[in-house]
Amino acid sequence: MTKPIPVQPLYPSGEVDPGLQPYIDLATRDLAGLLGVQASAISPRAAVLVVWPDASVGCPTPGMRYPQVPTDGSIIELEHDGSVYRYHAGGSLPPFQCPTPLRTAPGGYASG
Fold first, then answer.
1. 9 secondary structure, DSSP code
2. Of 36, 47, 59, 62, whose CA is between 20 and 30 Å from 101?
């Protein structure tokens, strides 16, 4: 079973793009299952559109090659009990937690 990965937030709290609600819902259900809590105990901290530098959507697997093309996607940061959890999405990939958390926001992010 995958374990939830707490991270340091990259985005201002409350910066949530309403068009990302379906992705927020998917990520919230996933995190609730991982934490063993009700989805209502999790709140969206930030959900932003980004442009990933390549098709790995910010989570390259060692040894894998990815098309080196900008890829539209999103980052969702969820909060539960004082901890923040980040989900990546992009291309045809639904939201997922990356085992190697980002330390900086990807290029293409425009703060609102």
1. -
2. 36
Give the Cα separation of 29 and 19 in Å (integer): 18
Residue 61 included in any domain: no
Rounded distance between C-alpha atoms, residue 29 and residue 50, angstroms: 22
Q: Which residue matches tokens 């998917």?
A: 26
> Is 72 among the domain residues?
yes
The pLDDT tens digits along the chain (112 residues) read 478 999 999 999 999 999 999 999 999 999 999 999 999 999 999 999 999 999 999 999 999 999 999 999 999 999 999 999 999 999 899 999 999 889 888 875 544 4
85, 7 contact by CB (below 8 A)? yes
Number of domains in the chain: 1
The number of helices, as runs of H, and strands, as runs of E, in the chain is 1, 6
User: What does the block give as tokens for 5?
Assistant: 């990965």
